[in-house]
């Protein structure tokens, strides 16, 4: 039986990985992965390797997709396989960005369609003033996140513009945390104490974590207090509101009631 089973096993070899820069022993392509302006490096790899580039690190491999149609194929037709958020040790475990909605791992989530009119307005602004791309993109992401997650609009009288400004500050922290640190490639470095002279990255991460969590908690508590006051009446649909309704519905069923 064992001999026949061995004969029946397919003899074809597994498909090779896509091309990419040659990895070094133990550390892989750590020195090849860009710390900033990564799209420029990825475009160079596309010219050398084609639409797919394979790079490896001690932590995990990366597949760089440099083709729109191929990316569309992977994200739309096979989205249930590949859809997820990037995991990053500095941003996630140290700063706490992974607890935010934008970087929550794929699972029980509720998403709302964002107003196309706002997107078109931003696109028109970018066409008229392309030099403002980073500023306008940052503002758009902050407005989208604030409205989808917290149900706040910039024209709200109760501080919508202030919410967006805080979201921009959270976005800046996120960008800094994702710039790339050695600990993201060598996880054992997380045990390095922050007081060591060369551990500035960890001191920065701890400071960012305090600022990020303080802002996020303030935004959440603002929605929660409004929900407890109005029982959700008149509030815009949002991720947080949906979660609060579900939570307090479960508490009511269990006899807990609305806890202040």
Automatic annotation (TrEMBL):
Keyword Repeat carried by entry: no
Keywords: Heme, Iron, Metal-binding, Monooxygenase, Oxidoreductase
Region of interest (Disordered), residue spans: 1-21
Residue ranges the record marks as coiled coil: none
Keyword flag Transferase: no
Biased composition (Basic and acidic residues): 1-11
Any Pfam family the entry gives: p450
GO molecular function: heme binding; iron ion binding; monooxygenase activity; oxidoreductase activity, acting on paired donors, with incorporation or reduction of molecular oxygen
Listed transmembrane segments: none
PANTHER family: P450, PUTATIVE (EUROFUNG)-RELATED, P450, PUTATIVE (EUROFUNG)-RELATED-RELATED
Protein name, per record: Uncharacterized protein
Source organism of this protein record: Tulasnella calospora MUT 4182
């Amino acid at each position: 039986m064992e001999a026949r089973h061995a004969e029946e096993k397919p003899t074809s070899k597994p498909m090779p990985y896509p091309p990419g820069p040659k990895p070094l022993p133990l550390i892989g392509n750590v020195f090849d992965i860009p710390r900033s302006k990564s799209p420029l490096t990825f475009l160079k790899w596309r010219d050398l390797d084609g639409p797919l580039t394979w790079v490896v690190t001690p932590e995990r491999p990366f597949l760089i997709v440099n083709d729109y149609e191929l990316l569309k194929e992977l994200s739309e037709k096979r989205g249930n396989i590949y859809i997820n958020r990037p995991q990053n040790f500095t941003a996630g475990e140290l700063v706490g960005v992974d607890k935010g909605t934008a970087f929550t791992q794929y699972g029980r989530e509720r998403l709302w369609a964002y107003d196309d009119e706002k997107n078109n307005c931003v696109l028109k602004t970018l066409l008229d003033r392309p030099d403002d791309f980073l500023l306008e993109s940052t503002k758009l992401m902050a407005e989208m996140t604030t409205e989808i997650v917290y149900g706040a609009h910039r024209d709200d009288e109760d501080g919508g513009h202030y919410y967006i400004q805080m979201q921009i500050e959270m976005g800046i922290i996120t960008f800094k945390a994702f710039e790339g640190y050695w600990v993201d490639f060598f996880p054992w470095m997380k045990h390095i104490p922050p007081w060591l002279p060369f551990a500035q990255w960890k001191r920065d991460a701890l400071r960012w974590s305090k600022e990020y969590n303080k802002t996020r908690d303030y935004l959440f508590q603002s929605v929660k207090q409004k929900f407890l006051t109005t029982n959700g009446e008149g509030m815009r649909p949002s991720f947080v509101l949906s979660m609060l309704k579900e939570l307090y519905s479960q508490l009511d069923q269990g006899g807990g009631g609305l806890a202040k």
